[in-house]
Design a protein that fits this description.
This protein is of the alpha/beta class and about 325 residues long. It has one domain: Alpha/Beta hydrolase fold, catalytic domain (Rossmann fold, 3-Layer(aba) Sandwich). About 40% of the residues lie in helices and about 15% in strands. It is built from twelve helices and eight strands. It has helices spanning about 15-25, 35-45, 50-55, 110-120, 135-150, 155, 170-185, 205-210, 220-230, 270-280, 300, 305-320; strands at about 60-65, 75-80, 90-95, 120-125, 160-170, 190-195, 260-265, 285-290. Strands 1-2-4-3-5-6-7-8 form an eight-stranded mixed β-sheet, with helices on both faces. The longest helix has 17 residues, at about 305-320. The radius of gyration is 18 Å and the shape is globular.
């Protein structure tokens, strides 16, 4: 942080959750030479999938499906209610982790909740991570999984007109990229894109990134490390893929309705806000929520705080409106 750009204070109700986030997730500073150590640590703190399912009435299925042309196959985890569904909505979930950490089980717990609440089918995609697989590997993998979901909608009991692409942090950025690819390739119709605290811009120069330099969850230094790994020498240039870095897409018209959700006290605040503004400027639909005092990922780590409950309620309200039957 700088004297010129003091940070926005955290909501006092969120401070305990933020401390827990930092203690659990960010024990090792994320730098180029610690990505693998962080990846191992991140994997070690994820509960087993069986524990996340518990006694909830869902079934999980693992599928191997074709990846992008010339690339390896990809893995999908499919979550369905025990009772068969027909013409159900689908949530295509993309995990976070800065595109350098995590796997498709990260976020399965929340996906299960949405599947049960909406009588939906959930699909979580495994994508290749940087730096071993730089851009656009991750977004191409995610798009390939979406194409498979749409092509197999009848088999899965899914209404292909009600597919929502969603994710948090890196998953939010990749969800935006997938929506752009679907538009530009004439791909699957997407009912909505849920962009939660999305990682959208590689430049790392706006005010909110400066406010949380060395402070908070997923600070400016972590972001630098991740984007360097993702883009390498293309970072900061016009050659960076706009599908992996959605803020670099010149034209944001013709996109599915977007839900943009971010904390006021985190680095992605300004890029998320700008993205919604640019969608509106084209006549597109976007719903923007900037939550006072919210740190990165606050609703997941501080679920009982008043602002977290408000954020969850707002997201569910948007989903109910987006998923109305035609």
């Amino acid at each position: 942080m700088t004297a010129e750009h003091p940070p926005v204070p955290y909501d006092p109700e969120l401070e305990a959750g933020l401390a827990g986030f930092l203690d659990m997730v960010e024990q090792i500073p994320l730098r180029a030479d610690t990505i693998l150590a962080n990846r191992d640590h991140f994997a070690s703190i994820l509960p087993p999938v069986e524990a996340m399912v518990g006694d909830r009435p869902v079934v999980l299925e693992e599928r191997t499906v074709p990846g992008p042309e010339g690339a390896p196959d990809i893995q999908l985890t499919i979550v369905r209610p025990v009772e068969p569904v027909t013409n159900a909505p689908a949530f295509y979930s993309i995990h976070g982790g800065g595109m350098v950490l995590g796997n498709r089980t990260f976020g399965i717990d929340g996906l299960i909740e949405d599947v049960l609440l909406f009588g939906a089918v959930g699909v979580s995609v495994e994508y290749r991570l940087a730096p071993e697989h730089p851009a656009p590997a991750a977004v191409e993998d995610c798009y390939a999984g979406l194409v498979w979901l749409a092509e197999h909608a009848d088999e899965l009991g899914v209404d292909r007109s009600r597919i929502v692409v969603t994710g948090a942090s890196a998953g939010g950025g990749l969800s935006a990229g997938v929506a752009l690819l679907a538009r530009d390739r004439g791909g699957p119709a997407i009912a909505g894109q849920g962009l939660l605290c999305p990682m959208l811009d590689d430049r790392n120069t706006n005010v909110s990134t400066l406010q949380y330099d060395g402070l908070g969850a997923w600070d400016r230094n972590n972001n630098d490390t991740a984007w360097n790994a993702i883009l390498g020498p293309l970072r900061g240039t016009d050659e960076a893929s706009p599908y992996q870095v959605p803020t670099r897409m010149a034209d944001l018209s013709g996109l599915p309705p977007a839900y943009v959700d971010v904390g006021a006290a985190e680095i992605f605040r300004d890029e998320a806000t700008e993205y919604a503004l640019r969608i509106w400027a084209t006549g597109g639909q976007a719903e923007l929520h900037v939550w006072a005092g919210g740190y990165h990922g606050f609703s997941g780590f501080s679920p009982d705080a008043e602002v977290s409950r408000a954020a969850v309620a707002a997201r569910l309200s948007w989903l109910r409106r987006i998923l109305r039957s035609p």
